[in-house]
Amino acid sequence: MRRRRFLALAAAGAGAVALRGALRPEVTTWRGHALGAEAAIRLRGPARLAEPALAAARAELARAEALFSLHRPDSALSRLNREGVLTAPPGAFLAVAALAGRVHRATGGLFDPSVQALWALHARGAPSPAALAQALERTGWKRVSLSPEAIRLPPGMALTFNGLAQGWAADRVAEALAAHGFPDALVDAGELRAGAGTWRVGIAAPDGRLLETRRIARTALATSSPGALRFANGAGHILHPAVPELAAPWTTVCAEASTAALADAVSTALVFLTEAEARRLPDRLPGLRRLLLAGPGGALRIG
Q1: The pTM is what?
Q2: Given 66, 88, 188, 189, which residue has the most CB atoms within 10 angstroms?
Q3: Phi-psi category of residue 283: left, alpha or beta, with phi > 0 → left and psi -120 to 50 → alpha
């Protein structure tokens, strides 16, 4: 599920990236890290007023880390994975889990945050058939119990929201910037969230070929390129939740949606959808606007 890493690790060689020449003169840029990857914020407006807005943005990124980081032992997600239960879960955590459930159902289970056990297994090396079978027994989003009182996992299960949390963070940052007088902003937290102004962005293949450019405003883009990073056994880093050895049919996909969280989640599952399944997806997920699926045979555009 860690497909958004490739936007950062490839130095914008794959995915949605801002193109030069699209910025107005008065632009303030901040660069840092969020949820284990590089992040950037571009603000259009008086630079002398930018710091309070950026401070609010950094606070939102810190909140996302406290909720969803797999690398912080004190995060809400790490505690859930370690203890198997998260009592009185924060409202934001429940909201992200609810969106995960909607995308899980809309994609026929292809978006599944419970793949963390599979991901960790592949990260350690080529798994044996027995180890793979055991990891598969510990997956399955439908087995997660969600309520305002507690989130409970079956024994041995672990979740990752790396296919959604970065988009959620980008949405919260954009809202914070607008509340502090900077509605015209471009937030890059692995996904792109554009504010009120128009921004020109490019969607590229893993080899750097530009697939298309877009002018975006009040929308979000997220991309996935499953072959941009591979495990030691050659498997792509985005794993099919039921058939981990299945290769994705698309080399690069892009989802445009009203929120970065939705675009993020959809682009993770999109790499395994057939053309027919992809065409049905916008009707199942309100807010999903455009899809791009590129493969050896060319590019398919929906919406």
Answers
A1: 0.90
A2: 189
A3: alpha
What is the pairing mode between strands 192-194 and 219-224?
Answer: antiparallel
What is the predicted pLDDT for the residue at 9? 25
pLDDT in tens, 139-148: 999 999 999 9
The CATH number that applies at residue 292 is: 3.10.520.10
- Secondary structure letter of residue 70 according to DSSP: S
User: Cα(first)–Cα(last) distance of the chain, in Å?
Assistant: 25
Alpha helices in the chain (DSSP H): 5-9, 50-68, 76-83, 91-106, 116-123, 129-137, 165-179, 260-270, 275-284
Residue 6 in contact with residue 15, Cβ under 8 Å?
yes
Q: For residue 98, give both structure tokens.
A: 């609810």
- Taking the C-alpha atoms of residue 24 and residue 219, their distance in angstroms, rounded to an integer, is 19
Tell me the two tokens of residue 242: 């039921």
Q: Is 131 exposed, middle or buried (0-12, 13-18, 19+ CB in 10 A)?
A: middle
For the stretch 38-76, pLDDT in tens is 899 999 999 999 999 999 999 999 999 999 999 999 999
Comparing C-alpha atoms, which of 273, 276, 230, 239 is closest to residue 254? 273
Please count the structural domains in the chain: 1
Beta-carbon count within 10 A of 102 CB = 15
Taking Cα atoms as reference points, which of 239, 243, 301 lies closest to residue 271? 239
Q: From edge to edge, which strands make up the β-sheet containing 15-18? A: 15-18, 199-204, 210-216
Q: Are 301 and 270 in contact (CB under 8 A)?
A: no
pLDDT recorded at residue 43 = 96
Write phi, then psi, for 60 (nearest 5 degrees). -65, -40
